[in-house]
């Protein structure tokens, strides 16, 4: 890699040993992928995937201390993934002890470090930093130093920004240095599709299932998805963006997708059409049977597979305001149909702090609360790290949460039936 | 016995017993429970990876196509290196992915741990190597499987 004289000086220690290690890390990262140069980070804000003060992650906080003690802070303000604990989420006394006294003992230390390193504010904790209410929405073509698989794939695919699937810690180093190595999804060539996915379903595919199937098939490659126009249209409406948010999160967690193109819809697909598809791209055909096959293969690891669901998480990644409204309307209708006033299963809806604040100004907030729903800005995945959750029958419509926890996956329609008491466990 | 030549991502040499994941290795899902609760054998916690689920990973030659999943992956690898719970080495049949590379580099630059990493070993490598075989890595990226 060819460095500028300024970058070379940093590598040689002009700003101290710690900064030299930061730049060395970025140079090695770039060299591994054949990057020829560093490019400036041009987005207004960064985003970090690390949002938790886990006792076992002390080595991470030790690096942060090294950075802070060396006077190295992020050159741009940044947002972070959601916090791991929240009083709004129902917890037993024992769970509270496990969370606060055993697992997240470093949370206060971590959040103090975040303030010193440059977090935007106390409400900047959400995996959906790119939503309008959160304000960290990069522009098309901007270069990011972000981590959080669902945010990176959204920023690349739906917003047309440019970001590699960076790791936690390293994303902060890019924000500190102000530059990142140019390779992969930062380049025109790296953004071309090596897979064509032909969707031939008879009904609108569940976003989380379609994303899962594609992620498992293409892994880290770039898919160009055809056949979605009839359901998603050609404009990025709030509803469509919510769909793509969940779809992308599943591609990234069930595989390693950092960018997808949807024919006629996402910015680069609209501009370049099938010129985005590389010669020799492989083809994956998805129909309803294929989605059923994928779903049927998810392992159920509850201690008792026939247990009655006792907790439901909706919102991984965090919900948009549009999704809240949709859920409130569907629940209202379903409860009326089942003759109930309250949800049959304890249900936690999760969203960014700013989205929850916006929700509070709508009638939907009161509706959901009146049904007994909890509304939180917690990270469901972090909550589920609690070992006591292994014994709990937790359900979710998030494929990401399913992947990283013992939570059992159901489609949104199935979840609605279960939590409104229409049906017992399916 | 068969030899495969790859690209050295993190230099080093070692001999270890192979642990093979023919599918993508989800770093967070594999390590989160083991490091959270101090599992001395560092058993794989990824229920979606039947080839590795519940198998000890500590000190093994982890043979895989690539890593997948959360962008905490690199941070997790760095942490296992810091805690001395890393595999003996990581051997990729494909070009290394950005998260595994991040973890390997963070481990190399910011810890004292030794975890040689070789990628680009080819599909034949992953077809040949089986869990339980002995793997030896040379400094030049030559991998011997027997």
Outline the fold blueprint:
The complex is a heterodimer of chains A (426) and B (146).
Chain A (H helix, E strand, L loop, with lengths): L4 H7 L5 H16 L5 E3 L5 E3 L9 H12 L8 E3 L12 H11 L3 H11 L31 H9 L12 H8 L1 E3 L11 E7 L7 H12 L4 E4 L2 H4 L5 H17 L6 E2 L4 H6 L4 E10 L1 H9 L14 E9 L1 H18 L7 E6 L1 H8 L2 H8 L3 E3 L3 H5 L9 E3 L2 H6 L3 E2 L2 H8 L7
Helix pairs in contact in A: 2-7, 3-5, 6-10, 8-10, 8-12, 13-15
Chain B lengths: L1 E4 L1 E4 L3 E7 L4 E2 H10 L24 E4 L2 E2 L4 H10 L6 E4 L5 H13 L6 E3 L3 H6 L5 E4 L4 E4 L1
Parallel strand pairs in B: 3-5, 4-6, 5-7, 7-8
Antiparallel strand pairs in B: 1-10, 2-8, 3-9, 9-10
Helix pairs in contact in B: 1-2, 2-3
Q: Can you offer a commentary on this structure?
A:
- The complex is a heterodimer of chains A (426) and B (146).
- Chain A is an alpha/beta fold and 426 residues long.
- Chain A has three domains: 5-183, Aconitase, domain 3, CATH 3.30.499; 190-291, no CATH class; 311-419, Aconitase, domain 3.
- In chain A, 41% of the residues lie in helices and 14% in strands.
- Chain A has helices spanning 5-11, 17-32, 58-69, 93-103, 107-117, 149-157, 170-177, 207-218, 229-232, 238-254, 267-272, 288-296, 321-338, 353-360, 363-370, 380-384, 399-404, 412-419, and strands spanning 38-40, 46-48, 78-80, 179-181, 193-199, 223-226, 261-262, 277-286, 311-319, 346-351, 374-376, 394-396, 408-409.
- Chain A is globular.
- The model of chain A has no long low-confidence stretch (mean pLDDT 96).
- With 146 residues, chain B is an alpha/beta fold.
- Chain B has one domain (2-145): Glucose Oxidase, domain 1 (3-Layer(bba) Sandwich).
- In chain B, 58% of the residues are buried.
- The mean pLDDT of chain B is 95.
């Amino acid at each position: 890699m060819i460095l500028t004289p300024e970058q070379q000086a940093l590598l040689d220690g002009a700003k101290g040993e710690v900064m030299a290690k930061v730049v060395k890390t970025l140079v090695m990262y770039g060299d591994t992928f054949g990057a020829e140069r560093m490019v400036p980070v041009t987005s207004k804000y960064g985003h970090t995937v690390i949002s938790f003060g886990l006792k076992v992650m002390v080595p991470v906080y030790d690096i942060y201390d090294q950075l802070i003690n060396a006077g190295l802070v992020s050159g741009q303000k940044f947002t972070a993934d959601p916090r791991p604990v929240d009083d709004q989420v129902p917890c037993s006394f024992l769970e509270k002890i496990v969370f606060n006294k055993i697992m997240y003992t470093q949370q206060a230390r971590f959040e103090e470090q975040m303030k010193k390193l440059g977090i935007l504010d106390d409400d900047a904790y959400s995996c959906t930093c790119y939503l309008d209410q959160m304000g960290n929405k990069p522009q098309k073509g901007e270069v990011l130093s972000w981590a959080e698989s669902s945010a990176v794939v959204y920023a690349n695919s739906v917003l047309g920004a440019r970001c590699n699937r960076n790791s936690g810690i390293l994303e902060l180093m890019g924000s500190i240095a102000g530059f990142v190595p140019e390779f992969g999804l930062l380049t025109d060539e790296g953004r071309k599709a090596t897979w064509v996915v032909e969707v031939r379903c008879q009904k609108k595919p569940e976003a989380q299932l379609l994303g899962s199937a594609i992620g498992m098939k293409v892994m880290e490659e770039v898919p160009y998805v055809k056949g979605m126009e009839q359901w998603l249209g050609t404009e990025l409406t709030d509803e469509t963006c919510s769909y793509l948010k969940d779809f992308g999160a599943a591609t990234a967690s069930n595989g390693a997708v950092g960018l997808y193109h949807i024919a006629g819809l996402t910015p680069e697909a609209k501009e370049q059409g099938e010129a985005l598809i590389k010669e020799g791209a492989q083809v994956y055909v998805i129909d309803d049977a294929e989605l059923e096959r994928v779903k049927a293969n998810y392992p159920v690891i509850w201690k008792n597979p026939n247990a009655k669901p006792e907790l439901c998480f909706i919102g991984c990644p965090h919900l948009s305001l549009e999704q809240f409204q949709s859920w409130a309307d569907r629940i209202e209708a379903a409860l009326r149909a089942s003759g109930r006033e309250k949800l049959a299963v304890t249900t936690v809806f999760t969203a960014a702090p700013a989205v929850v604040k916006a929700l509070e100004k709508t009638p939907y907030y009161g509706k959901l609360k009146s049904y007994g729903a909890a509304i939180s800005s917690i990270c469901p995945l972090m909550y589920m790290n609690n070992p006591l959750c292994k014994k709990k029958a937790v359900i979710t419509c998030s494929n990401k949460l399913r992947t990283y926890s013992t939570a059992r996956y159901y489609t949104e329609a199935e979840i609605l039936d279960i939590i409104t008491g229409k049906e017992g466990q399916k | 016995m068969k030899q495969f030549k790859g690209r050295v991502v993190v230099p080093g040499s070692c001999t270890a017993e192979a642990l093979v994941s023919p599918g993508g290795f989800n770093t967070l899902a594999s390590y989160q429970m083991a490091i959270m609760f101090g599992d001395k054998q560092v058993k794989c916690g990824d229920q979606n990876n039947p080839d590795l689920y519940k198998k000890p990973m500590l000190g093994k030659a982890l043979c895989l196509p690539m890593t997948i999943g959360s962008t905490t992956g690199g941070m997790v690898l760095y942490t296992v290196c810091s805690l001395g719970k890393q595999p003996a080495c990581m051997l990729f049949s494909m070009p290394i992915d950005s998260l595994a590379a991040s973890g390997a580099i963070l481990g190399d630059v910011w810890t004292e741990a030794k975890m040689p990493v070789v990628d680009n070993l080819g599909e034949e490598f992953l077809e040949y190597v089986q869990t339980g075989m002995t793997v030896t890595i040379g400094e030049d990226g030559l991998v011997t499987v027997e």
